[in-house]
Design a protein that fits this description.
mainly beta, 16-stranded antiparallel beta barrel, two-stranded antiparallel ribbon, 4 helices, about 45% strand
């Protein structure tokens, strides 16, 4: 480029020189005809120089890359399906769903009036509870008050953040109920870690917003609470289809809760280490019916060290206590309990079965629980406990309870004709019945006799229940339950329970309860 410019300048100077020479030779009197040619040549040289300057400037300017205009990002999709607020990215890779539950319960207990403690021998689970069992509290309670968000991130990651403000008898302080993340990119396998309810049975995994009764059967709650239960810190791997299901989990402690008496859970010296496994399959499934069978179990390899190195001799350092309330929580009093058993290990095994045919539904589970004592005295064996329940329901309006293969359990029914005075529709109606038995006795002995060295007088609880459920729509539900409760229990200690030796401390009572619920 530079050599071309130099050449043009040389030509211009040559043209100028010719002009000067011509002028000198001929003077100014008579113009030379060659002058016009010289001027024309000079103009061409100037034009070429200008063009060369433009080319040089363009060569030294960075190139401008033209890109097509970017399309604006697609807006998020906001929905309110069935009353549940949801937001999702246009490609579905990200979602966030608000989640809320209210269970507001009211109950009226019908039991014999409380008499003097010396003659009225009804007692609660704990030795010091000599009053509540004799006068159960009729009233109201927010059993569940939950608020949270769940959804998906980057397509393959699921999450759930849920806080609980309800309680048993009285509402607890707000606390973490569910808080977990799950990878779902290797279907049918999934892996979850955090605080959640590890899979441990049909009742354990059924949604509390769709249960037939206000509470689970007592034996199911006892068994699942050994290594699992609500808000358990764990890691779980599971897989399944609509025909089979398998899961395994490693579990630790449960999330700590401050209850209505401002009493929290003490930090153990070492947390519990447990394992849970479950398998299920459906040998029969059609458009009208389903048979689901399964087995589940748990093993506590290391009970929580609740006493520490300064535990007094004879006290339970690695205590496991099996206990439960009757199947209602308006009054939070427990009436059956094994008391603290110093344990080396513990395990459960359970069998499960459910059958659905049209609007008819039946379900049952059996649980066996064994505790291996730590350093027992001579002649003291390891206690074993058991229980079962049978329950069923019938949808008067023809709907069917929904089977959820993701957790291998049944949820509430859809509502085909939501309540509407304008349309003359009334929602869905369901009737239900259940019998449950939870036996926490082992070598209990005879009435009027002192317990043997290896006796566990935890008591046996038998409950007949009947219920009527009304689902105005998928958002709201009202429940009416009746219970006939019988507790058989011999006094574990005449001294600590303030009773005669081997006295009967159980009771028989009735209760009517209602629940108002919304869930989204």
């Amino acid at each position: 480029m530079r050599s071309r410019k130099t050449t043009l300048r040389t030509l211009w100077l040559a043209a100028a020189s010719l002009s000067v020479i011509a002028t000198a030779a001929h003077g100014q009197a008579q113009p030379d005809p060659r002058d016009a040619e010289i001027q024309e040549l000079k103009a061409e040289v100037r034009a070429l120089a200008a063009k060369l300057d433009r080319l040089e400037a363009r060569a030294n300017t960075p190139p401008v890359i033209e890109t097509p205009a970017q399309a604006p990002a697609a807006p998020a999709v906001v929905t309110l399906a069935a009353g549940r607020p949801s937001i999702a990215s246009a490609d579905g890779q990200f979602t966030a769903n608000l989640h809320g539950v209210m269970n507001f319960d009211a109950a009226q207990y019908s039991q014999a009036s409380a008499g003097p403690i010396a003659t009225d021998l009804r007692r609660g689970a704990a030795a010091g509870d000599t009053a509540h069992a004799r006068d159960l509290s009729s009233g109201t309670d927010f059993r569940r008050a939950r608020l949270g968000v769940d959804g998906r991130a980057f397509g393959d990651w699921d999450y759930d953040v849920l806080f609980e403000f309800g309680g048993s008898g009285e509402e607890d302080a707000g606390h973490v109920y569910d808080l977990w993340i799950q990878y779902s990119g290797l279907k049918p396998f999934r892996a979850r870690v955090g605080a959640f309810t590890p899979s441990a049975g049909l009742e354990d995994q059924g949604s509390t917003s769709g249960m037939m009764f206000l509470e689970r059967p007592a034996i199911a709650d006892i068994a699942r609470g050994l290594a699992g239960g609500d808000s358990r810190e764990a890691i779980q791997v599971w897989a399944g289809t609509d025909r089979w299901y398998a899961s395994t989990a490693v579990t630790g402690r449960s999330v700590g809760v401050v209850n209505s008496q401002a009493t929290g859970v003490s930090q153990p010296f070492d947390s519990q280490l447990g394992f849970i496994g479950r398998a299920g399959f459906a040998p029969f499934r059609t458009d009208r019916g389903l048979l689901a069978l399964g087995v589940h179990g748990s093993y506590v390899d290391r009970p929580a060290d609740v006493g520490g190195p300064d535990t007094a001799a004879g006290a339970a350092r690695y205590a496991i206590t099996l206990q439960e309330r009757p199947e209602l929580r308006v009054d939070g009093t427990r009436l059956i309990s094994t008391g603290a058993i110093n344990a080396r290990h513990a395990d459960t095994i359970g069998l499960e079965a459910a059958v659905q045919y049209g609007p008819l539904f039946l379900q049952s589970e059996y649980e066996r629980i064994r505790i291996e004592r730590l350093n027992p005295a001579a002649g003291v064996g390891d206690p074993t406990f058991h229980g079962y329940y049978v329950e069923g329901s019938y949808m008067l309006t023809g709907e069917r309870r929904r089977f959820n293969p993701a957790n291998w359990a049944f949820d509430g029914p859809p509502v085909n004709r939501p309540f509407s005075l304008q349309d003359g529709t009334w929602g869905a109606f369901e009737v239900a019945a259940r019998y449950s038995d939870a036996d926490l006795n082992d070598h209990a002995g005879a009435a009027g006799a002192a317990p043997s060295a290896d006796a566990v007088r935890g008591g046996e609880q038998q409950i007949w229940s009947a219920g009527l459920n009304w689902y105005p729509n998928s958002f709201v539900r009202f429940m009416l339950d009746y219970q006939d409760v019988t507790i058989h229990r011999l006094s574990p200690s005449a001294t600590t329970f303030s009773t005669p030796v081997g006295a009967e401390i159980g009771q028989h009572y009735h209760v009517v309860a209602v629940r108002s619920q919304f869930a989204f």
